[in-house]
Amino acid sequence: MQFGIFTVGDVTTDPTTGRTPTEHERIKNTVAIALKAEEVGLDVFATGEHHNPPFVPSSPTTLLGHIAARTENLILSTSTTLITTNDPVKIAEDYATLQHLADGRVDLMMGRGNTGPVYPWFGQDIRQGIPLAIEHYALLHKLWREDVVDWEGKFRSALQGFTSTPRPLDDVPPFVWHGSIRSPEIAEQAAYYGDGFFANHIFWPKQHTEKMVRLYRQRYAHYGHGTPEQAIVGLGGQVFMRKNSQDAVRDFRPYFDNAPVYGHGPSLEEFSRETPLTVGSPQEVIERTLSFRDYVGDYQRQLFLVDHAGLPLKTVLEQLDILGEEVVPVLRKEFANLRPAGVPDSAPLHPAVLKTLTEKES
């Protein structure tokens, strides 16, 4: 099973000090966080894509290309790539290039994003969000699998005899996840192509996530890709840890209470009860994460959000130490022991990555 972290790249004032990092600091700190993720033995680092303040990751391939040059094992991903407002031709070219630079250590997550104004900024209509996601991905899927493409659709100019360059490394396209918080159409899209489905899993109660994953699994089997249990599922999660839960709650509360995303609403206790947010000891995080399996089944990737809401870099790096030393090793063992035979233990990796892992193990 793959464990890692994802970032939304927010530039948020630290409510305990009143200090706001510069964009330069936030970008550099994001690189430091990714390098720390590899150092502590995590599998995946994923970055979001935003084109508005207070976020900085407007160019995921630039960021991930830099991280690729400074890491050896880390799988580089997105959370998410905006399939609606990016040109699928440019996505095909950019991420194939990144795949070459990273020697195959790349997959990506497609999504519609959660910022409405981004649509007109890139010449699109938010009311066409779902049709855009469907059509754009159909073209991207084709561009990575056919050397010469003839194509005509509704939302961009037609292509005649077009070849996307560079071609995917070894003619193996990056593995794709389709990320969603609320849209069953995206679960259906993931199932149709036999791709992975990533349930964001950080704002909604478990009953909602359970329904979305169940739909994806059922439709995955319907399209003949395998059994429902063999469908490739990923989950998000939010954690904050201290040695004991009282310290974790005390230290995290000011960040939660003032966070732009969920501050000034339900209390920390209410939000933790109704969503997968876990603020407590490492053991509490282990137990809560293992409980996700009870309602989504065996799954392949778990990504944690740890660097949001103005948390300082020092604190984030401490969280990664705890994840790498105390939490993830236990989760790896427990999930492996629970996983039935015939159920994939991780998302598909590029053959070059598999070869490297095999050589290191031998």
Strands, count: 12
The share of residues in extended strands comes to 15-25%
Task: Kindly report the oligomeric state of this protein.
Answer: single chain
Gap from first CA to last CA: 20 Å
Helix content: 40-55%
Shape: globular
Given helix and strand content, the structural type is alpha/beta
Major sheet, described briefly? 10 strands, parallel
The string of secondary-structure elements, in order, is EHEHEEHEHHEEEHEHEHHEHEHH
InterPro entries: Bact_Lucif_Oxidored, LLM_FMN-dep_put, Luciferase-like_dom, Luciferase-like_sf
Domain Luciferase-like: 1-294
Protein name: LLM class flavin-dependent oxidoreductase
Organism: Streptomyces zaomyceticus
Task: Give a concise summary.
The chain is 44% helix and 15% strand. The protein has twelve helices and twelve strands.
Report on this structure:
By secondary structure, the protein is of the alpha/beta class. It contains 12 helices and 12 strands. Strands 1, 2, 3, 4, 5, 8, 9, 10, 11 and 12 form a 10-stranded parallel beta sheet that branches. Strand 9 (196-199), helix 7 (206-222) and strand 10 (233-241) form a beta-alpha-beta unit. Helix 1 (23-39) runs parallel beside helix 11 (313-338) and helix 3 crosses helix 5 (129-143). The longest helix has 26 residues, at 313-338. The chain is globular, with a radius of gyration of 20 Å. The mean pLDDT is 93.
